[in-house]
Design goal:
- The complex is a heterodimer of chains A (384) and B (50).
- With 384 residues, chain A is mostly helical.
- Chain A has a domain at 122-317 and 344-379.
- In chain A, 72% of the residues lie in helices and 0% in strands.
- In chain A, helix 12 (220-230) runs antiparallel to helix 13.
- The longest helix of chain A is centred in the middle third of the chain and has 29 residues, at 188-216.
- Chain B contains one helix and no strands.
- Chain B starts with 19 loop residues before the first helix and ends with a helix.
- Classes of the chains: A mainly alpha (384), B mainly alpha (50).
Chain lengths: 384, 50
């Protein structure tokens, strides 16, 4: 037990002791608040001077790229904007000691935000797609995650980084890199390094996929599905689809719900695989992912329970949107604290091996995906 | 273990460290707050208050 853990145990009165005193936590909380409200257009905050609005203005100058804003292609969103702002502040001005108790609230905000995400994934939204596209979405998710974890193992990549890449790449949603951080016990530098690798791979994939789609003469409708499942983030997928054709772009928007609603299955799968591995190889010093987690986290069980309730349509539309607005607040605050914790060196120290794993896994996924869709179209499983 | 000066204060408190009892307590706080928010917003809707 570290000296600080011993001090905490000694002074602990109840679980609320982890919030410290208001006087200790206030400076850090204010730092997170100001980073969040100057990074994002958060619900309830009429602040026009945000990084989000600056990117929006720059997108207007650059102009749309295959109907997509450049900043969105580069993954600007409510998680990565505050992270970037925190990163800039920390690397230019440093982090005052007075902020650090308050910034530790990141560890409360992560489970809080992940649990509140559950009502966002309403499975019935995907029923309109039909069985075959949903099966393809699920197959792509589990095969990509398993493939990435295996490649990371073969190439001797740190298993925490391999897990983060597996989650982000398989779900087509780089938010998952951050969601998996507390579950995998990954370092902040690994998360941002992995995210950068996934985004750069996405830039390559969004230009490669339309060439392959044209060569295979895939129907535009199902190229939309291939784009949704085979690129890096949502806007990169739409870029690829609109690059092939307008119909493909429209169908990518139609099929995206299939990828989106099964997303929790991706990060749960990666966590469960790595957790079982950690319990099985407890004495192996190279097994670092989920190290320190000795039992299935209760809060993750609550997330699964709420996800099931969402599937049963318990959360109606207005409540689900209100809860998601709170998720935006939560992750904006947490991402600010994460950004403040990192130096450029922390991110660069993990090197390019993660990017190599991302590229190999991503390219194999594209080949398998296009082959599967081509076979399904030929056999009539996917009706043209 | 080497301390990260960016995340560690002079008392040795590292805000990115999260383990043991402190981690369980933070998880409990997050879990309770999440349940309060999700359930109260859902209940408010079912009660027709928005």
């Amino acid at each position: 037990m570290s000296a600080n853990a011993a001090v905490y145990e000694q002074n602990r009165r109840s679980f609320l002791s982890s919030l410290y005193s208001f006087r200790e936590a206030l400076p850090g909380l204010l730092a997170m608040l100001f980073i969040a409200v100057f990074a994002n257009n958060l619900p309830g905050v009429p602040n026009p001077l945000t990084l989000e609005n600056l990117f929006y203005w720059l997108d207007g100058v650059i102009g749309p790229l295959n109907h997509q804003p450049f900043s969105k292609i580069m993954n600007s969103n409510f998680v990565w904007n505050p992270l970037l702002l925190g990163l800039l502040i920390a690397n230019i001005f440093g982090v005052p000691d007075a902020w650090k108790r308050g910034l530790s609230y990141i560890h409360m905000l992560m489970p809080l935000g992940i649990i509140m995400l559950a009502p966002h994934f309403m499975i019935f939204h995907a029923f309109k797609l039909g069985a075959a596209p949903i099966v393809l979405c699920l197959a792509s998710l589990f095969i990509t995650a398993s493939l990435t974890l295996l490649l990371a193992r073969w190439l001797k990549l740190d298993d925490r980084q391999g897990s983060i890449i597996a989650g982000g790449l398989s779900t087509g949603d780089p938010h998952v890199c951050a969601i998996l951080m507390p579950l995998i016990k990954a370092k902040g530098g690994q998360v941002v390094n992995s995210l950068a690798g996934i985004i750069v791979f996405g830039l390559l994939a969004m230009n490669l996929l339309p060439l392959l789609g044209s060569w295979l003469e895939l129907p535009e409708k199902y190229f939309g599905l291939a784009a949704v499942l085979g690129v890096g983030n949502g806007h990169q997928a739409l870029y690829a689809a609109f690059d092939l054709g307008y119909e493909a772009g429209r169908y990518a928007q139609w099929f995206d719900v299939g990828r989106h609603v099964v997303m929790p299955a991706g990060f749960l799968y990666v966590f469960i695989v790595m957790f079982i591995r950690q319990r099985r190889y407890q004495s192996d010093p190279t097994v670092l992912a989920t190290r320190g987690i000795n039992q299935f986290p209760l809060w993750l069980g609550v997330f699964i329970f709420l996800w099931v309730l969402a599937a049963l349509h318990l959360f109606k539309e207005p409540a689900h949107h209100a809860v998601f607005n709170l998720v935006k607040w939560d992750f904006s605050l947490a991402a600010g604290a994460l950004g403040l914790s990192l130096s450029w060196r922390d991110i660069g120290a993990w090197g390019f091996k993660g990017f190599l794993v991302t590229c190999i896994a991503g390219l194999i996924r594209i080949v398998l995906l296009l082959a599967a869709i081509a076979v399904c179209v030929k056999t009539g499983l996917l009706a043209v | 273990m080497e301390l990260n000066p960016r995340t560690t204060d002079p008392q040795g408190f590292d805000y990115m460290a999260n383990s043991g009892r402190e981690e369980q307590d933070r998880d409990t706080c997050g879990l309770i707050l999440a349940l309060i928010l999700v359930l109260s917003l859902t209940a408010l809707q079912y009660l027709g208050l928005y």
